[in-house]
Structures are given as structure tokens and as C-alpha cells.
Amino acid sequence: MNIDITLAFIVFIFGLYGVVSSNNLVKTIIFINIIQSSVILMFILLSKKPGSGIPIKNIGFSPYVDPLPQALMITTIVIGASITAVTLMLSIKIFHYYGSLKWSDIFKKEE
Amino acid sequence: MILITSLLIFSPIVVSIIMFLFNRKIVNYLAYFVQVVNVIILYRLTSIVIDKGNFSFVYGGYLKSVGIQVYGDIYSILFLWMTIIGFSYALIYIYDDKFVDVKFILFMLFLEGVMNGIFLVNDIFTIFVLIELATIISSILIIYQKDANAVKSGIFYLLYNTIAMILYLLGVVFIYKNTGYLNIQMIGESLSSIYNNEVLMGIGLIITALSLKSALFPVYSWLPYAHSSAPSSVSALLSGLVVKIGIFGFIRILGVFHNLHFQNLFLILGIITSVSGVLFAMLQYDIKRILAFSTISQVGLITISITSRNELGFWGGIIHITNHFLTKGILFLCAGVIIYMTGERNIKKISGFAKNSAIVSIGLVVGVLSITGAPFFLGSVSKYLIKAGEYPFDIKPLIYMINIGTTVSFYKIIKIFTNKDSGENSLNRYRKTSSKKISIIFLMLIMLGVYYLEVTYIKTYLGVNIISSYIVIKTLGEYVLYILIAVFVYKIIISKEFYYLKKVDNFNIGFQSSNLLLIVYLIVLLSILKYSIV
Q1: pLDDT in tens, B229-245
Q2: B422-448 pLDDT, tens per residue?
Q3: Could you tell me if A86 lies within 8 Å of chain B, comparing CB atoms?
Q4: Of B249, B51, B36, B26, which is closest to residue B134 (Cα–Cα)?
Q5: What's the whole-number average pLDDT of chain B?
Q6: Mutate to test the interface with B, among A13, A48, A89, A107 (most CBs of B within 10 A)
């Protein structure tokens, strides 16, 4: 495995740890964004090969970068942005109802 | 071909946008018109698949390896019919709901188009995009009434499913790195011999994500929240249809890995899921939570049966997907009307609706008889076939146990007919419920038709006559036994309400522990894949 993909994987593990450990709703949303960015980074790094050029026909690089991951990742970034928007909107509502953004307060046992 | 398939996916979406832009009462009838058009298109597609076999094409004339390929087989057709029937009854049901406006119908129709897309596309990345879209739209539908409980469930559902889908995307990364393809069939072909660690890791990640979508043990903690606090029409759709996305993914994506044998893994997952679902369902007193936990146990049953080595069990599972969709639909709709009329969700306190609405009572009884497997009802057909399946060890005692547990939890629901009428909530009783009753009648007629179709097709293709006297008497005998044991269990254990049982009743898993469970599940799954399957 390359060094850059390993670094992206470390970011992924870090984000996963953050999702499990953070008690705050907004922090959870931030950590989910971190995980998603690390996966996007990994996918884009896949297309990189040493000595390859831009994938445009007329310029004529013979080993060229795989353009498909980049096209796919734009879609993923858009999805991530929309999920962040919806969850932030919901966290406003959560604060309105529960007076707190802590998971332990939101999922308190009802007696 | 391209035109009619695209119409199936895009006509609900385009119509929903038109409705949103014009926002007139007359334009809202377009929603029902779209369902009629889709039924006609789907009838045509069904005849194509039955006559000529599977169809496939690529949008925009690209290569199969880079374009979006549409692929329809018999499973796609089945799930497409379920989508259209599901959204038809939901749209009829919400016709006179007060909270429903044009935006709610916009999201409903958008979800319909997205679901149609999921069942037709054939590459793992487009499936990811569409499942994410379906997740966002379902969570908006869950929180639509904006009460505190619904918002809590909605955000739990959205964040937890998003994490799972990121794991799915990581799996896509690993598979793309090793094969260079996204198309499911081409991945299967190029992986015919080698399975290195990275590919196994990718498959493990995808299985984890789809297990969460289909609510397998131990990653189902989102389901009781989401399905019990959504509006009833949405609960019916989520329980009947959206949960089955995961099962569809298993059939379609894992079906191409011929060399890997997932049967034992899914058999054990299914058994644990259904047993735990049934145990929790027996101890609940909220009517919608009982139905939600019952969904978990039925999904487990489906997972067990699709691992069967003979055709009878496998097709039993596929038929059970349809049967559970219709049955859970009618149960959630009836529960919705009951909650709407009496304003009460606790089954100990619901009273006095039976006198005022015979149709809802009949619907509830039909649903309960069907899900517990009474003869001449839908559930009995698939449960008989599942028991006839061939598994590595004898699982009949387990299936009897699951059926008895289901009977106990639905015996509790049936007991609401005997509750004394307190007369407190007489005001709500005269609310408008005519469209809800129409949708329940519609669903019962569909169930009758599906029962007829199933009996004929099982006789023709699988060689089993479900309505022969031997099978009917056997099913009836078993059913009476179930009821006797269920009443016994209820009287001895459940109705006593011991302290520890009450603790279990209140048992909820928070968000952080759910994520921990997800990661533990992922690690266990990866080690199983590494050391026992290859």
C-alpha cells in the first residue's frame, strides 16, 4: 500500500474513533464529514500513477490518470454536503426540543 | 425500452416537481395518474422479462464499464411491483391527513422514483448514490410532523445510515482498486479466481453496510426508533419496502461472487436477528414498536430462507418479502388509523374503536392472521416454503419458536378488542378516515389477488399445491398449537410484568454504543471472511 493511501486510512480510523467517542451531535456531524473526506481522498489517490498525465485526448499523454474516480467523487461530495445541511437543520430542532446537543441528554431513559 | 424504463424512474420525480411548482389541488391528482402510468409500464416490462429474459442497456451509449447500466431481472420486477403498490396505498392513505401538504407528496414521489432506480441500476456506485438519496428523503419523511420524538429518530436514522454508507463507499474503493470495474456483473467475472485481502475487505464493508440497511443483528438499533415515530403511511413504506433494499443488495451484489460461500454466515445472522427481534417484540406495549420489532424478526426469517440450498426455501424467502410487505403495510395502516382515532399508542389503553370502524378491525385481524401464518392467508404460504427449505442443520424448531414468539406479540395486539371502553376519547372518534379505510380495502384486495397468484405459480413452477388438504390440515394443526402455546406463554410470563422484563422493555441503545456495535460487527465480519470463507 502506498504511503498516501495509508495516511488517508489513518484519517479514516481517526474519524471513526471520533464518531464513537464524541458525545456532541455537532461534533459527530464533523467527524462523519472527516470520514467521508478520507474515503474520497482514498478514491482519488487510486487513479494516481507515477509519470501519468492529464486525461485529455489531444495533448497525448500515453499513461494517463484514470478520470472515473474524480467524476464519481464530485457526486459523493454533493451528497455529503446535503447530508450535512439536513443534519445541521435537524440539530437546531434537537436543541429546540431537548435544550442540549449531547447524545446522552437526547437518549435519556424515560422513567 | 430505454424510454419506458426511464419513464419508470423519472416520471414520479418530474411530476413531483411539477406539483411543487404549480401547487393546485387539481395538479395533485397527477400523483395518482403517475401510479396508473407506472402500472401499465411495469406490466409491459414484466411481459418482456417473462418472454425474452433479462434486459439491460447502457445510458448515453457509453461503454458498459464506465456508463450507467440498467439491468432488469425477475427480482427487479418483483421489487418494482412492490414499490408501485406500496406508494399507491400510501398516497391513497394520506389523502385526507391534515398534516399532508404538497411538499410531503413531493418527497413521497421522489422516494418512489429513487426506489425504482435502486432496483434497476447495475453498478455499485450508482446504487450507493441512490441509497443515500433514499436515506435522506426517508429521514425527512420521518421527521415531517416535527415532534420531539420524530426529530430524534430522524437524526439517529440519518447519521447512522450515513456512516454505514460511507463504509460501503470504502468497500467500493477496495473493489474498484482491484478490479477496475464498477459494473456488478463485470466485477463478478474479473474476480472469478482471485480473492486477495483487499477484495475481501471490500466485500466485508459492503456486507456491513447492507446489513445495517436491512436491520440485521446487532446493527438494528435505528429501526425501532425510526419505524415507530414516523407518520403511519411512511412507517408502512419503511417497514415493507425500504428495509428490503438491503436484502435486494445481498441478492444482487453478493450473487455474483460465485466462489464465496456466504450461506452459513447469513444463516447464523438471520437466526440471531429473528430470535432477538421476536424477544423484544413480545415485551413491548407500544403498538407501533411491536410492529417495528416484528419487522426485524421477519427480516431475519427472510435472511435465513435465502440461504436455503434447494429452490423451495429460496423462493419461500423471496415470496416472504412480498408477503411481509403487504402484511406489515396493512398492520401499520390499521395501527395508524387506531392511533388517529383514539389518540393512544399503548395497547393496554386503546379502546372503543371496534364499534365505530368495522373495516379497520377486519384489516387488523387479516393482518394478524396473515403474519402469524394462519391457513388461507398470505403468511402461511411463504412460511410453509421456508420450512421446506434445506439448511446445513435442522432449523425447524427455531422457526417454530419464532412463529410462537410472533403469535405472542400479536395476541397482545388482538387483546385490544377486549379492552373496556373508557369513553374518554370520544371526540377523536368522528375524525375523517374514509380515505384510510379505502386504502385498507385496496390492500386487502391486493392480498387476495397475490394469494391467488402465489398458489397458482407455486403449483406450476415448484410443484407444491399449497391448498391441498394435507398441507392445509397440517398448517391448521400447527397454527392451533401456536395459539395455545402463545396464550400459555402470555398468561404465565408476559402478563405478570416482572421487574427485569420491564427493564428489557425500556431497553434502548444510544448513538455511540450503536456505532461501537457497528465497528465490532465489521471487525468480526472481516475476520470471519478472512479465516473461514475462503
Answers
A1: 888 889 999 998 999 99
A2: 655 554 555 677 888 888 999 999 999
A3: yes
A4: B249
A5: 86
A6: A107
Cβ-defined contact of B159 to A32 (cutoff 8 Å): yes
| Position A109 pLDDT exceeds 50 | yes
Q: Give per-residue pLDDT as tens, B494-531.
A: 777 777 777 666 667 788 888 899 999 999 999 988 88
Residue with cell 428523503: B137
Copy the grid coordinates of residue B28. Answer: 395533485
Helix (H, G, I), strand (E, B) or coil at B52: helix
Amino acid identity at B73: D
Distance CA B398, CA B405 (A): 10
A82–chain B Cβ distance below 8 A for any pair: yes
What ipTM did this prediction achieve?
Answer: 0.93
* Distance, CA of B429 to CA of B425 (rounded, Å): 7
Chain-centre distance of CA B503, in angstroms? 28
Does A92 lie at the interface with B, CB-CB under 8 angstroms?
Answer: no
Query: Which of A24, A33, A87 to probe the B interface (max B CBs under 10 A)?
Result: A87
End-to-end CA distance of chain A: 52
Q: Does B512 touch chain A (CB under 8 A)?
A: yes
Tell me: pLDDT of B45 over 80: yes
- Verify whether the Cβ–Cβ distance A39 to B508 is below 8 Å: no
Contact yes or no for A42 and B170 at CB 8 A: yes
Beta bridge partners of A24: A102
How far off is chain B from A51, nearest CA to CA, in Å? 18
Read off the DSSP letter of residue B509: -
Q: What is the pLDDT of residue B533?
A: 63
- The answer to whether the beta carbons of residues B9 and B133 sit under 8 Å apart is no
Interface test with A, best of B144, B166, B186, B517 (most A CBs within 10 A): B166
pLDDT of residue A111: 45
User: Is residue B375 helix, strand or coil?
Assistant: coil
- Closest Cα in chain A, distance from residue B514 (Å): 9
Q: What secondary structure, in 3-state letters, does B127-147 show? A: HHHHHHHHHHHHHHHHCCCCC
Q: Which residues of B touch A94 (CB under 8 A)?
A: 151-152, 155
Which range is most confident: A41-55, A66-80, A96-110, B486-500? Answer: A66-80
User: How much is the pTM?
Assistant: 0.92
- Residues B490, B496, B500, B505: is their CA dihedral positive or negative? positive
